[in-house]
Amino acid sequence: QVQLVESGGGLVQAGGSLRLSCAASGSISSFNAMGWYRQAPGKQRELVARITAGGITNYADSVKGRFTISRDNVKNTAYLQMNSLKPEDTAVYYCNAQAFIMATNFNWWGKGTLVTVSS
Question: How far apart are CA 60 and CA 89, in angstroms?
């Protein structure tokens, strides 16, 4: 029983910034990793950014230098600071959380939040 709730999406002009938040709740007290994925119309879902409980991060090449992922392990909340937004960043952004339970990795997903970047 894990629920991920995203917030912070919306409409922004190119060059602007948004910060997405993902609040996790449920029976899992901590997650091995949390991340953000996105899916644009007609395209496959792709990894945007990921962060481990120890703070190790990785990013898609397309967002390096513009996006920053962070997490609050006490609050079980992940954030995605998005700067210098481009129209091609327009997509539904999904929060992901991963936990290792009984020798198996499990993944949970939020319902997504829409980010629209206008030119």
Answer: 12
pLDDT on residue 94? 98
Token pair, residue 76, equals 């079980």
In tens, the pLDDT along 78-88 reads 999 999 999 99
Query: pLDDT category, 89, cuts 50, 70, 90?
Result: very high
What would the two tokens of residue 112 be? 């997504």
90/1 Cα distance (integer angstroms): 30
**Residue range 45-69, pLDDT digits in tens:** 999 999 998 999 999 999 999 999 9
Q: 96: which strand partners? A: 35, 109
SS3 letters across the chain: CEEEEEECCEEEECCCCEEEEEEEEECCCCCCEEEEEEECCCCCCEEEEEEECCCCEEECCCCCCCEEEEEECCCCEEEEEECCCCHHHCEEEEEEEEEEECCEEEEEECCCEEEEEEC
